[in-house]
Amino acid sequence: MAERAISRFFREGGRPEGTPYSPISHLTITPHRATVELVVLGGFVEVWLAKEGHDGLVGINCLEKIQLSTPATLLGAMIAGVDVVLMGAGVPREIPRTLNDLAAGRIVHLPIDVDGADADRFTLDLDASDVVGPSLPTLTRPVFLAIVSAHVLAAFLARDEDIRPDGFVVEGPPAGGHNAPPRKSVIDEKGELLFGPRDEPDLAKIAALDMPFWLAGAAGTPTALREARAAGAHGVQVGTVFALSTDSGLVDDIRNALLDGIRDDSLHVRTDPLASPTGFPFKVAEIEGTISDRAIMVGRPRLCDLGFLRTPYLRPDDVVGYRCAAEPEHMYERKDGTAEDTIGRACVCNGLTASVGLGQTRKDGYRELPIVTLGSDTNAARQLLEIYPDGWTATQVVEWLVTT
Fold first, then answer.
1. For residues 97 and 108, what is the distance between their CA atoms, to the nearest angstrom?
2. Residue 63 contacts residue 91 (beta carbons within 8 Å)
3. pLDDT value of residue 18
4. What pLDDT, on a 0 to 100 scale, did the predictor assign at position 59?
5. pLDDT of residue 329
């Protein structure tokens, strides 16, 4: 599989400046074998590289909203020996069964949400032994942690052995990336989605489930870690200070802009109710020259070429189609979408890719610009800047968290 990918995509000396990346087929319910192989390799490589040079645990975080890549990603990650799988941005009820099936060598039949179709009518099937062949090793089932924002969802997942995770990451509203929608939708005069006290998770009710849990969202300080443990949590999930570390892969100019904004208290991270085509609120760091600028976002030629966040829907001819609210408006409407749903949508796929220096260059010379996500609480980063004014590594973050 690696040889086929290298033969197809590797260029000696790198990609010449101004040359577009070669396209790949979109994910579908019935994907091309080459596409499946690339997803397997992607999951494998991420975990394999993360495991180099230490004997610690390595996890992989997937999104329930990106179902079409889930089985192949998990297969690749498990071949590399992933220790933990985390998943949020939806209700990940099928993941325990999927992990069990992969570990047992059974064919995976993952139900796919298709707009307009009955639940469980469509599945994405994956036979690991067919994809990998006789070299498929015995797979160890990783621990599965469901990312939740409310005790109600945690209780629902915990009540049934077939869908029960091994624990929870309990995520509060300040967390970066996609957020669970608030119970009551309130948007201020700047177009930012606001959260209230009712959106804070009830930790006592989650602790009463008697399952391991970790806290996320404004939890990335030594004090927050101690408070989490005192509340019954095993620990915390930390995002922002790792994203700002020199090991995260963020483009240097973006990292420096973020740190400068934290130093002079000018950085604003808004909860954008529209930016993500998934319909979930999305934290956007406001940085000059990025998609956070609405004028830049509106001026971007709308194009869905990566397609990771496309939504399957049932066409009038009873065939599954795919649409994205960030694609060209006329195409979205032609796929039975509404023009209203396209307003304010950003291409998160291309934007996040550009934020780590892998933005696409179009044949007409247009370069994809970044969209940057970060937690809205920068207290931990301020504390680290006092210790490491020129920036920090991921190792230094861990040492600070557990020894301070």
1. 9
2. no
3. 87
4. 96
5. 94
153 half-sphere exposure, CB direction, 13 A CA radius: 21
Per-residue pLDDT averaged across 322-331, rounded?
Answer: 95
Q: Which residue has the tokens 């973020």?
A: 258
Q: Please choose, from the candidates 146, 155, 181, 371, the residue with its C-alpha nearest in 3D space to the C-alpha of residue 278.
A: 181
**Strand, helix or coil for residue 219:** coil
The pair of three-digit structure tokens given for residue 277, joined into one six-digit string: 């085509």
What is the end-to-end Cα distance of the chain in Å, rounded?
45
Q: What is the pLDDT of residue 190?
A: 82
| The 167-171 sheet, strands edge to edge | 59-63, 84-88, 143-148, 167-171, 213-216, 235-237
DSSP conformation letters of 342-387: GTT---HHHHHHHHTT---B-TTS-BPPP-----S--HHHHHHHHH
Residues contacting 85, CB < 8 A, separation 6+? 59, 60, 62, 74, 77, 95, 99, 142, 143, 144, 145
Percentage of the residues of the chain whose pLDDT score is greater than 90 = 84
Indicate the helix (H) or strand (E) that contains 168: strand 167-171
- Is residue 322 classed as helix, strand or coil in its secondary structure? strand
In whole angstroms, what is the distance from residue 148 CA to residue 137 CA? 32
Alpha-carbon gap, residue 225 to 222, rounded angstroms? 5
b/e per residue 24-58 (b: at least 16 CB within 10 A): bebbbbebeeebbbbbbbbbbebbbebbeeeeeeb
**pLDDT of 397:** 97
61: tokens are 């975080």
pLDDT tens-digit series, residues 289-324: 999 998 999 889 998 999 999 999 999 999 999 999
Token pair, residue 172, equals 């509060």
Answer for the pair 45, 2: CB distance below 8 angstroms, yes or no.
no
The sign of the CA dihedral 151, 156, 157, 159 is positive
Residue-level length of the chain: 404
> How crowded is the C-beta side of 387, counted as CA atoms within 13 Å?
13
